[in-house]
UniProtKB/TrEMBL annotation, chains A, B, C, D:
Protein name stated in the entry: L-ribulose-5-phosphate 4-epimerase
The protein's required cofactors: Zn(2+)
Cleaved signal peptide residues: none
Pfam entry (one): Aldolase_II
Enzyme class, first EC level, given as a word: isomerase
One GO MF term attached to the UniProt entry: L-ribulose-phosphate 4-epimerase activity
SUPFAM superfamilies tied to this protein: AraD/HMP-PK domain-like
Source organism of the structure: Maribacter orientalis
């Protein structure tokens, strides 16, 4: 069963398996996609298939208008959200969605996650935004497509860059994360979950905990991401 | 040792083992049963046997009046609760009972679990009910039988459907969950435990967290369970 | 290296390993002993030996007056507490001491663990007692011996039976548990840790949570331990 | 590829792997170093290398002035902090830095960890200090070097001995721990994380929990570390 999308499917498959290995999903509560910019398609997990039974062949290929290009199964029910983000954000290569415990808790609490420390600032300088729950008229419409709109609107209103802030919480729902590759989107999902738990515990110990001071936010972010970055090889 | 209930015992055995694998029980703190509607009997875990030592042959076959039909061991001490539910709810195929951590915590707190997000709404539209602790005169009577009555009374008082709401907390005790099969009852036990932990964390982060809006509750539930459901294969 | 205490050492060794497997200890933060009533000696973990390096031969045999009867290593630093309890409570066959997370948290909070539900009542009808921290003059004396006195005094003051209540918290320190065998002492340590976590979460969800009603406490305890017990085989 | 630092690199490698095995790090969020006092150099993890891909050969050898002596990779971005501590504290043989969950939560809350019990007192008699976040002018300067200054200043201001208190929290950042060897530094990191979680839970159960009384602090510490210590072999 040869396919021109074999490598793309395998990248997508590996990223989905990693999501499960990292403890970010149970059952079918999550999905990862990987994009092929040259061909204008992306690979995504089929809907409702347990991770234990997932194979690279089961991965579905879809274009940015949600047409199935290859694959015998129905793609993730969140496919339209992925398609919308790929269409609007040319720089991203992969997207992950989970119902991970602490990320969901902040989303259900409808609170942004404040930047309380360097673990957070190593990855982004802003608070992690929690988008408002969707308006009723949008829910009745094209729901998953509109989730994508909801994310873009949130970034516009707050003047956030999706290149720097690679994660968001959807109020009363859960997290989406993205990155240059599907693997990076999964990495960002794990970072978000970790930072979400740290921030939760911080507020339990000190309800008046203060945000990291600006000089430290800048220092840590630029150590890893600035033009004079000296972290890593 | 051939038995006409061999397949039923194996279904019951597998579901009990899965309960343990999912981290929902320690020692002997739980049990699962599976029903055979045609023969009017159900298979249930023997009482006090550790999961590590459980075999399909040890599973006990009981009828709806609690008469042992097959098996050399004493059935679970909660057998009468299972029997009562099977007798009254024709649509269910399996029942699971655990003392899982977060489910028990809500039961001991005597609080319903509010529907705070889509993880919950993907499975049921109502708050997960916590039945009031049993009245003293019922405790002194046929206790496990009366636990079944307690569950049915709770559903009647609140006008809940046991086809839509497949789980309940017994005040000061713990959760029961059910479903079309024993495997689904175990699945529902895991969903309940997950949702219970999410709701607990949500209230820790925001004591004034609000329930999911009705339009979203309906949308998520119908995405998976409505007549135009498009989740899964 | 044959020894008349070979079986006793092995019982003690297995119970110590199980303590570690159950996640109740890290490093050397715990110890289990097993008694031989006929010979008036008990077997106990050597002090400061990591569980990964423990062997049955390393187990030390000690009498009730803390004299080493067999073994080339120094016994646990808590040996005198074990000896004192064996000397005073003829009915017990094993003792376990840990620094397990939730048990220690209640001990450090200096609070008894209220009987909030049936998981607790299945094992004991009383709140789990937290003994007051030791008086200064006793600390300067024979500390570990006096820890034994502290436990007995606590049970006397509260009129508790060490046959029914097989566990205690030492204020600002941690838990001791016992039972008919070393394995039962380890079991009780795990039950204590589980009930401690459940009670902690219950109070987080509902700070006004109430104790289980007396009729239910009695019912659940007698289901398992009364003269008409019908739990188990 | 023979090297006069082969044994040192292996010690450092093993300690880094243990940090990961103990669940104290995810991805590249941590590092351990081991010093060779005779040659005035230390071995440290390369920057940004995942633990799964780490080999003894990849370990970098650096002197106290941060000059790379051996190794083809860039050393940890925290190298200057390690160098500063080795230069100023002659008695230490290893240093570990993590972003472990509960340690970070206390650091982000900017709170010292009070000595609430004997688990803490078995290791140190003081509260675990949380150094104030760095002043802005120091952040803009030689950041990682200044983190070392920040630690020393904290110990001077509070009159703490780095031989007795082998751990510190950096406000809004995370923990550093040290010891006679790299393995001991890792051990202290695990003890710190455990004590941090215990103290967090203690305050959740009893916001008015009191510090361990002085006589008990002294007793437990001297049991293990005093001149008449009787813990261990």
């Amino acid at each position: 069963m040869s396919s021109k999308y074999k490598a793309l499917k395998e990248e997508c498959f590996e990223a989905n398996i990693e999501l499960n290995n990292l403890g970010l999903v149970i059952y079918t509560f999550g999905n990862v996609s990987a994009v092929d910019r040259k061909n204008g398609v992306f690979a995504i997990k089929p809907s409702g298939v347990p991770y234990e039974k997932l194979t690279p062949d089961a991965i579905v290929i879809v274009d940015y208008d949600n047409t199935i290009i290859e694959g015998s199964m129905r793609p993730s029910s969140d496919t339209k959200t992925h398609a919308f983000l790929y269409k609007n954000w040319n720089h991203i290569g992969g997207i992950a969605h989970t119902h991970a415990m602490y990320s969901v808790a902040w989303a259900q609490a409808q609170k942004d996650i404040p930047v309380f420390g360097t673990t957070h600032a190593d990855h982004l300088t802003a608070d992690i935004p929690c988008a408002e729950p969707m308006k009723d008229n949008l829910i009745q419409g094209n729901y998953e497509h509109n989730t994508g709109i909801q994310i873009l609107d949130c970034f516009k209103e707050r003047n956030l860059s999706s290149e720097e802030v690679e994660m968001v919480l959807i109020g009363n729902h859960g997290p989406f994360a993205w990155g240059k590759t599907a693997a990076k989107a999964v990495y960002n999902s794990k970072v978000l979950e970790t930072v979400a738990q740290m921030a939760y515990l911080t507020l339990q110990i000190n309800p008046n905990a203060v945000r990291l001071k600006d000089a430290l936010i800048k220092k840590h972010y630029e150590r890893k991401h600035g033009k004079n970055a000296y972290y890593g090889q």
